[in-house]
Design goal:
Elements (H helix, E strand, L loop, with lengths): L3 H6 L4 H29 L9 H25 L3 H18 L11 H6 L4 H13 L9 H21 L10
Helix pairs in contact: 2-3, 3-6, 3-7, 6-7
Length: about 170
């Protein structure tokens, strides 16, 4: 919709612009997770054995991590086509290498070595702890801490590289 230049020309502060771009996407992602869990419970018979608060906490921190990853990518790449490439391939790689698409037991050993370096691994392991066993919020605190650390690292990259005055090419 090419509104970026007009938004930057407005009196809005950079932080407010970022929040205005990130919050709707975060709400949409949380809604998708709620619908996914709701569908699983209503249609597939999914039972959350542990704390629902822990599921909510993992979901909130995961969405913050994904949003900060997006901001970091926007800060690093120079074109919209590269943004699409890095975000799609990066998301698929994080999901696959983190064990969210296929159980790590079925993957080669080297994938298990890389998995802890993927935020999806920590989110998925946290969900398994809560959904598959009787995990409480305290049981997923390490997962939340690692996801928060990834979020902080992505925010730091975004703060370092994101320049509001720098135009992005669309090619």
């Amino acid at each position: 919709w090419l509104t970026w230049d007009r938004i930057r020309a407005s009196p809005a502060r950079s932080l407010h612009i970022l929040l205005g771009k990130a919050i709707p996407g975060g709400v949409m992602a949380l809604t998708q997770l709620a619908l996914l869990f709701g569908f699983g419970i209503a249609v597939l018979g999914l039972r959350i054995q542990g704390s629902v608060a822990a599921v909510c906490a993992i979901s909130l921190v995961l969405v913050a991590c994904v949003a900060s990853f997006g901001l970091a990518v926007v800060g690093v790449v120079r074109t919209a086509s590269r943004l699409n490439l890095v975000s799609y391939v990066g998301g698929l790689a994080m999901g696959g290498l983190g064990g969210a698409l296929t159980p790590l037991d079925l993957m080669p050993d080297w994938v298990g070595t890389l998995a802890p370096f993927m935020p999806t691994h920590w989110a998925f392991q946290g969900y398994l702890e809560v959904v598959g066993s009787e995990g409480a919020l305290r049981d997923v605190l390490p997962n939340l801490a690692v996801l928060a650390a990834f979020t902080g690292a992505f925010v730091a990259i975004a703060a370092w590289r994101l320049r509001f005055g720098e135009p992005k090419r669309w090619a």
